[in-house]
Task: structure prediction
Amino acid sequence: MDSDDPMKEPKLDDWSHQNTVLIAEVTGRIFVALITGAFLVVPLGLLSSKSVRGTQLVVVAVAVLAFSFLVAGLLKVSNYEMMVVAAAYAAVLSVFVSNEQTG
Result:
């Protein structure tokens, strides 16, 4: 019988490998979701407590740079995708700064 027979039942090692890959993918997605959430919540919390415009701009700049470096380092993205991610993240933070109610 040929070893490449498609009707052959998978070995236990094949199932183990598939489960390991699935666990790694799910863990990676959860990690990215947590990091993304933190990169949205922490700067917004800092921005809501700062009323000085210069301080707000520094917080936005540092957060955008840190997020961009993290995405570039951890994810396989093209230059175009990196630019889109950074621009979208900066837009979210700057909308929050521009919509702040002054007392």
